[in-house]
Amino acid sequence: MQTMAEDIDPQLNMPQREVFTSSGTWTKPDGAKWVHVQVQGAGGGGGGVPATSSSQAAVGGGGGGGGHAESIIDAASLGATVAVTVGGGGSGAAAGANTGSTGGSSSFGALVAASGGGGGEGGTATSGNQSSAGGAAGGGTAGDIQVFGGDGGNGIVLSGQPTAQAFGGTGFMGNQRRGPSGTTVSGAGTSAGGGNRYGGGGGGALGGTNAAGAQAGGAGGDGIVIVTTHF
After folding, report:
1. Mapped to the 3 state alphabet, what secondary structure does 48-71 carry?
2. 123 and which of 44, 64, 74, 132 could share a cystine (Cβ 3.0–4.6 Å)?
């Protein structure tokens, strides 16, 4: 009776979920009928800033959020194994007027893929006006559903005062990372200095008007791939 019921209603069988936080290989389980794949690209790193004098400020741009993609795939169309790539978060810019690195792309073979967010531009010390561009968002590049992340926030200085403390852009699986709250604090507000998991951009660095030293940008959040097999 159980076998008959399972043949009629496959939902009686518990799905099998595999979570990839690093690159690897997915192996198709016996009896797989269809597969739900979720792919999240990594976030970009935030921009850095140079040292400022008592009459200057500098704000780096935030890193862009990684893209996202999903598909439901007939398991019969898949080979015995599929290569899984998980993108690493973009490095936060080194202290100084440096641009953060682009986040890595994530993919499930060539079937489902998403790109990483761009790095935020480095800020420039100024007693006038200045804007540092936030990193562009990543997007889905293959799959049934393709979603863009959020662009990183611009870092803005007006009349020598830090006006916009650049945030890291959102990822579908990683919320926005706010910029620094103090004049000598770099990037993101976590102990790792990175964007929110998974796929959030790192915050841009800030140098305020108290003769702050050069500051580094926050690193982007890593990507992730989730594969759920139904029987």
Report:
1. CECCCCCCCEEECCCCCCCCEEEE
2. 132
Structural domain for 124, as ranges = 32-231
- Within a domain: 13: no
Q: How do 155-158 and 161-164 pair as beta strands?
A: antiparallel
Cβ contact 214:206 at 8 Å:
no
Q: Is 5 a domain residue?
A: no
Q: Classify residue 4: in a domain, yes or no.
A: no
Average of pLDDT values for 188-200? Answer: 62
3: phi > 0 → left, psi -120 to 50 → alpha, else beta; which? alpha
pTM (two decimals)? 0.88
